[in-house]
Design a protein that fits this description.
Elements (H helix, E strand, L loop, with lengths): L11 E4 L2 E6 L3 H21 L5 H19 L10 H15 L15 H26 L4 H23 L1
Antiparallel strand pairs: 1-2
Length: about 160
């Protein structure tokens, strides 16, 4: 069966849980697209040979969580919860231990993997902004909003870790 269906040729598409087709510029299509960008960017980081195995495992776990968050925007129960957020916080504390304190803004990265972490952080912030705007119109799980906020911090710490070893 081919991947193309020609169903979207007129600018409309379907969404899980929505019975009617929506315009491709619908805010949810934008949000799902940003989820996809974020997961893909983490995958790019994960393919770098210089990234330690322990960090690759963290990245893979984050990719799964992000994917879950995207698929569970409107369900009553979500995989993203207080424990998921605390897991990120614990990982940040662990990754940041022993790193020099920041006294100024960081402008550049020493490695491609670190630079991609900063790109992923920017994508995550954009996703968070779009989710908050959508949440104002149609409420979504607050834990997903909190997770995205924490994830951008996690990506910042991860970029520093990849630069500082």
């Amino acid at each position: 069966m081919p991947i193309y269906t020609r169903q979207g040729d007129k600018g409309k598409t379907s969404l899980p849980g929505i019975k009617h087709r929506v315009e491709k510029h619908h805010p949810l299509i934008e949000i799902y697209g940003i989820f996809d960008e974020l997961v893909t960017t983490l995958n790019i980081i994960n393919t770098h040979k210089t990234v330690p195995k322990s960090i690759k495992q963290l990245l893979t776990s984050a990719q799964k969580d992000i994917f879950s968050a995207g698929t569970q925007l409107f369900s009553r129960r979500t995989h993203i919860n207080v424990q998921t957020i605390q897991k990120l916080e614990q990982q940040m504390d662990y990754l940041e231990a022993g790193m020099p304190k920041l006294n100024q803004f960081i402008i550049s990265s020493k490695t491609a993997s670190s630079a991609y972490c900063h790109l992923a952080r920017c994508i995550c912030r954009r996703l968070e902004r779009r989710l908050i705007a959508f949440h104002r119109k149609k409420p979504i799980h607050r834990s997903i909003l909190a997770y995205m906020n924490r994830l951008s911090d996690w990506l910042f710490i991860l970029a520093r870790k990849l630069d500082n070893g």
